[in-house]
Amino acid sequence: MRAALVEAFAIALADPTLEVLLTGEGPCFSNGGDLREFGTTPDVSTAWAVRLTQHPGWQLAQLADRTTVHMHGNCIGAGVEIPAFASRVIADPETTFLLPELAMGLIPGAGGCVSIPRRIGRWRTLWLVLTGTRLSSHEALSWGLIDDIVPIN
């Protein structure tokens, strides 16, 4: 999925007339990064090169002013971090938000250490990461993690 996002965002970056609408299919917007991809590169330097050159969060930060995200269902890890770069984030009333990385021995690695504090501040971001608490769409709206709640069909 990361490669597809990188490719789509590269097209949008090349054409400043394009608007970006990011949605998810199925029961949830995104369950986060694919854990099967972790540790599959042949060495550490290749892993870092992939993370630096194929980072949809960095691209989305450049596209933020012309990007809208519609979220629904469970939004976990990268499924929270990457959308937080967008200038307009809309969630269905039943949407939930979770950063479970710390429980897996990780930190938010899809840009959430930058994107989420920009929206909700450092202390709330730290609280979400340390506690692994799931936020409702109404809590996310009151904190500024999302911009609006609209039923998404």
UniProtKB/TrEMBL annotation:
Show the Pfam families listed in the entry.
ECH_1 (PF00378)
Q: Which residues cross the membrane?
A: none
Spell out the molecular function terms from Gene Ontology. Answer: catalytic activity
InterPro entries, per the entry = ClpP/crotonase-like_dom_sf (IPR029045), Enoyl-CoA_hydra/iso (IPR001753)
Chain segments annotated as coiled-coil in the UniProt record: none
SUPFAM superfamilies attached to this UniProt entry: ClpP/crotonase
From the UniProt record, give one GO term of the biological process aspect: fatty acid beta-oxidation
- Tell me the protein's name: Unannotated protein
Q: What species does this protein belong to? A: freshwater metagenome
